Each structure stands twice: as C-alpha cells, then as structure tokens.
Amino acid sequence: MVKVTILGAGVTGMMVAASLPKDYNVTIVAEHLPGDYDTKEWASPYAGAIWVGVHQSSPREQKMQLEGLMGLWRLAETNPESSYAGKVPEFRFLNQEELPEGAIYGMKYKTIVLTPQKFLTWLYERLKSRGIEFRQTRVYSLADLEGLGHDVLINASGIGAENLKDVMEKNLTPWRLQCVVAKAPVSYDRLFIRRGDGGYYSTAFSRLDGTIYVRGVLSENDRDLSVSEEQRAKNAHNNQPDVFPSPDPKDWHILYNHEIVDSQRVIYAYGQNAGGYVYSFSLSHEVVNLTEDYLFELLVAGKL
C-alpha cells in the first residue's frame, strides 16, 4: 500500500489528503489541529475563507483559482453541511454613483463564503472517518518524519517552512493581517474589499451564521502578533457607516514543488499568500499529480 505523510493540518494539508486516492495510507502530522483555536501560530482558522480572484496573479495562477471556485461550488451543492453561502458570481462593474468616495473602480458579484472553524472541523472529521491518521506533535525538520516509512512526504507547513532545519525556506514573505468577527445587521449580505495606496486595506464579508468578518492592517514582512484595532475599525466605519455606525470596535458587538531531501521524496505545498481557500482544490490536485509522478518512478525502479 502506498504510504503518504503530510506535514500540516491547515486547509492545504487536509485538502491534499482529501484528494489523494482512498486506498492510500495517509498520515497527517501537525502541531495544531482543527479545534486548536487559542493560538495565532496558524492561519487557516482565521482566514476570510471566501472565493475572490487574487490580485497580481499570473495566467497559470488565475486558472488554478478558477478551478478552486469550481471545486468549492461542487462542495457547496453536494455537502452544504460543510458551511457555505452563495453561488456563482453575477459579475458586473459598479456604476460611478455606486462607488464609495475616493474609489476608482469597483465590481459586484456573488461568491462562496466558508466559516473556517466549521469547515476545518467538518473536513477533519470526514478525513478521520476515512481512516486517515492524525498525529499532533511539533516537527523541527523533515528528517524527524523519516521514520514514518512513507513513500512520499508532502510539506504543507505554510510559514512554518521557514523554521524547518533542513528546509529554511527563504522565499516566503510574511504578511500581517488582522481580523475581527462582529455581529451583522440582519440585512447585511455584502462582500466588501477595498485596497489603496500605502498598504490601505479594508474588508467586510457577511457569513451565513449572522456575523461579519472584518479585516484590516495589512503589512508586508511584519511578524508582530499584537492587536491594532484602531485603523481597522476606522476603515470599516468610513467605508460602510450604515453597517459600522461607530469607528470604535467596542460598539460592534464583538507554492508547490518537489525534490529529494535526504532520501525522502518531498512535495512542497505552500506560499499562496491569502489564497489558501481559493487555491485549496486546484493545489491539492497538483500535489496529487506530483505524488503519482513520484510513485511511477518508484514503480519503474522496482521499489514499490
């Protein structure tokens, strides 16, 4: 039986596991598992978890994003209990009179929104019922996993790849992005995203559970985990005063690749910036293809 180990239990790691053939023996090793929501050291539970086109994308990345949309759409129809709202986009550009003050252009469409804590838990339980094993431990290097006896190791550790002693990934750029979940007015059903000069960033996404996911404070190469509510709240209020009547939040009701590493066949799956959920389906399929390439090499060599 083919044995695969996946490092990382975020949306990427678990979606890869869900996409692998069911007759594979799959083990997921991670420091944090769904349900561990009292730490800021992993991003999946706190993501916007909404499908949007990622800006400054190459044609290949755009294709992967559209494949991700199709996958999320199928999931919404076949497994609505996984948590979703919306359907396919009804895209159009906003008229000048619809734009917020200072905006150059805008667009409107319907999309799919997940509540990540619910989705991750649903996917976690679904994978366990398939017989996929989860091991919770801290991993300091890929060499720590060699004893598991896998044919292929998939590294979906995200920003944690920087600290793996035999990887020390230098091509990742950390982005500081803060969010708050507030109770929504009954009528709120918007996806609001606004970017601007000087790192200006403000979003407000409605969710099916009656909350709004509000983001702001987007800064590159910033590892500070402290909370900066003032600017985020001010931006939300200025952009949508009908939804956020006060600028004070107290009033809101609060990359894939592969190589051989010390005899281990390793596949890397990280580096999607804020597109973890957007890329989840398409990236998992690319990783499955790379896994099958490795297994074909083993078969030809008579080692499988």
UniProtKB/TrEMBL annotation:
Annotated stretches, region: Disordered: 227-247
Cofactor: FAD
Gene Ontology terms: biological process: D-amino acid catabolic process
Family matches, as Pfam families: DAO
SUPFAM superfamilies registered for this protein in UniProt: Nucleotide-binding domain (SSF51971)
Gene Ontology molecular function, alphabetical: D-amino-acid oxidase activity; FAD binding
GO cellular component terms, semicolon-separated: cytoplasm
FAD dependent oxidoreductase domain segment(s): 92-246
Keywords: FAD, Flavoprotein, Oxidoreductase
Protein family (similarity comment): Belongs to the DAMOX/DASOX family.
Name of protein: FAD dependent oxidoreductase domain-containing protein
Organism encoding this protein: Dactylonectria estremocensis
Upper taxonomic lineage: Eukaryota, Fungi, Dikarya, Ascomycota, Pezizomycotina
